[in-house]
Amino acid sequence: MMRNTCRLFLVFCLTLCGAISVVQAAPDDKDGDRLSDALEQKVGRNPERPDYIVSAGYRRSCALDDSGVQCWGDEPRMGVTPSFAHPVALSVSNTHACVISDNGVQCWGDNAHGAINAPVLNKPEAVSTGWYHSCAIDAKGVKCWGDNSRGQLDVPKKIKNVKQIAAGGFHTCALDEKGVSCWGDNWAQQLDVPALLNPRQITAGNHHSCALDERGVVCWGDTYFDEEERNADVLKNYKTRTVPLLQNPRQVSAGFDHTCAIDDTGVVCWGARDRGQSDPPKDLLQPPVAAISAGWYSTCALDAVGVKCWGDNTYKQTEVASLFFDTDRDGITDEKDNCAQQANTDQRDSDNDGQGDVCDPDADNDGIGNEQDNCLSAANADQKDSDGDKVGDACDAFPNDPAESVDNDKDGIGNQRDNCPDVANTDQKDSDGDKMGDACDADNDNDGAANDKDNCPLIANKDQKDTDKDGMGDACDDDDDNDGIPDKQDKAPLKPAKKKATAT
Fold it and tell me: Has residue 399 been placed in a domain?
């Protein structure tokens, strides 16, 4: 009975924020995110820190990259994903999530038992979310908050210099200088840590825990969860504790009732597979796979292209809303960018072939490569150039004038001669003679007062003197004293004439 009751209420999501940063890295992988420095530099990522993090929850999953945090899936209790100032770590649970940013640890979602009420922390380094509790590592050690019904917040005093934290269903594990310690609920022996050889990564699932040490992946805890309710197909390879043969495993993630690891072959999962959570779509994963996150009944991975998820999709938790990578940092995600490796905010594609001009070797598709083509924006196989200015007639606004070829504002005056090349002004009026036409000159009289604030925009008057206060400066006002007598006829142009009294 106890098992059936617990099964309804337990869930877990692995946080990768700590796991990525502590996994032993190759010599050419400074930030330990499993992507080589050379590859990161090539695609515009920062090789000094892990740029991308993925975390799978129950009905919603999230990813973090240099542009921020984005989530997908239907979980109304989590609400709208907030914006964060430079987020660097992420963990998603069943109905809440936490992020480390410039503002410390920030959590959102369902606040049952205070799971999102993060305390004030001193330079937090990692965060992990469980069912109704959360934990973080800061400069002073481990801090946990939320539900403590099973002692999952009771951090042992013996742990020192904690390197990693993992919150499970109703238990928590930590990796410190002495090894792995777990506390909280132990009905399935998920706290009974076996002998480990120099462990370097931990993960906590629903009723099981795992570690990565020098020998490989080691798991302990529940092996047959609610066996009586599972059919033969589900029970096949269900044993979460029984780790399959792995080739040089580099990362492990424990979910609700399954576990996944990254090794030399790619992604390997074991345990329950009734929702497809243990069956990674290898044809969709492009090596190298950088991160893995096992959630409730789904799994997400981060490969060289983006975020991929599989398993239960009841709540659209495997339908990644967008690929988060913006390799060229032009504000357009790779998924939508017609030139993902080269910045091109305008997305110009002259030949409409789906490849942006900046990375298309033949931008106009006329059979002549860009380097030899005298007109990149318009097909011109004949390369005709009547005025010999090296700009083909097909895109030359002045095909018979070697001094002009472009007319941005289409006013009939070439950019080279136009005093306002981006604003049409056929009259080329330039009141102050500064070679900038009035149409685009913010200070037409060059007196230091902008046109919209100048009481005489076409006549220089630095003093902005306005004797009669009519909004028109004396420099351009024909009647400075506003007495009805033009200045040229007024004996006292700055002093209003007195009106003669009318006889009665």
Answer: no
